[in-house]
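re: ur question from earlier - yeah i can do the single chain one, its not a big deal. heres the input i used so u can compare w yours
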Amino acid sequence: MTPSSRSAPRLLAVLTACTVLLSTAQAQDAKPAPKAAQTAPKAAPTKPAPKRPANVPPPTTAEQMADLPHADEEQRQAATLVHYGKYVCDEKFEVFVERNPVFDGYVDVRYKKDVWVMKPVASKTGAVRLEDTRGRVLLVQIPFKSMLLNTQTGQRIVDSCQHDMQRGAEAEAKTSGAPVERTLDAPPTAKQ
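and the output i got, formated as tokens:
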């Protein structure tokens, strides 16, 4: 064995011992943090995010909003005529109409577990049509009621839906003697 090969294990042992001593010395030099600094300050209790009521369907999905064209001025104007909020329908069913959170001029309509992104269209008769962007459903809003229709089968999903604004308009019409029996099937009849 050469003198340098005999000193290699000794050198390794000395370096290891120095490393252990150095880390021990650093640990002893470090002063413990004061008691107050060791414990993190208590954060104010956070409120959980508000939960949607159980009967309100989930928000619109990204897939439903894919490829929506930008709303033109006519569509945005029609969106201002929509009654936003809860509608109470026949047999106590509820329909929720909300502004789409991403696309200006579009509306989200929710019924049970279904959600549709709809385009508002104002008609010359004063009705507002909310047309499903996928062509499956239509919500028609007239002065005293609204209805949700399946455009593929031609059947009503739910009828006689009223927003607070429509209930108020109906009550006002009744007190003034105006006819309130208006449907989508026939034009209003003249008062005799």
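Residues 86 and 96 are 5 Å apart (CA to CA). not sure if urs matches, ping me
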